[in-house]
Amino acid sequence: MDISEAYAERTQELLDERKWTKYKLANESAVPNSTISNVLMKKCKSCNLYTALNICRGFNITLEEFFASDLFKFENLDDN
């Protein structure tokens, strides 16, 4: 999987854990709903760290907690 797929899957995992909608995340994170939608649809090929930071703030977790998922292990990611 590529990084945008891992980013989308991790975001969806956290939404599911909390039983949140993308609209709730947009409100909690101050990230536009359109950006959240692009992340979840795997259209965010080069989302910046600022967006990830704000998504993490919305979830009230650290960047370390977000990226600690096995989804982001090198062996699970393609460079393409």
What keywords describe this structure?
80 residues; mainly alpha; 0% strand; globular; 434 Repressor (Amino-terminal Domain); 5 helices
Polypeptide structure, described:
This protein is an all-alpha fold and 80 residues long. It has one domain (3-69): 434 Repressor (Amino-terminal Domain) (Orthogonal Bundle). The chain contains 5 helices and no strands. The chain has helices at residues 3-18, 22-29, 33-40, 49-59, 63-67. α2 crosses α4. The longest helix is centred in the first third of the chain and has 16 residues, at 3-18. It starts with a helix and ends in a 13-residue tail after the last helix.
Layout of SSEs?
Elements: H1 3-18, H2 22-29, H3 33-40, H4 49-59, H5 63-67
- The helicity comes to 55-70%
Q: What is the typical, i.e. mean, pLDDT?
A: 93
- In DSSP terms, counting alpha (H) and pi (I) runs of 4 or more, how many helices? 5
Q: Any idea what the shape is?
A: globular
Unreliable spans are none
Q: Name the CATH homologous superfamily.
A: lambda repressor-like DNA-binding domains
Count of discrete structural domains: 1
Query: Roughly what fraction of the amino acids lie in strands?
Result: under 5%
Question: What gyration radius follows from the Cα positions, in whole Å?
Answer: 12 Å
Number of extended strands: 0
Q: What is the H-and-E element order? A: HHHHH
CATH architecture: Orthogonal Bundle
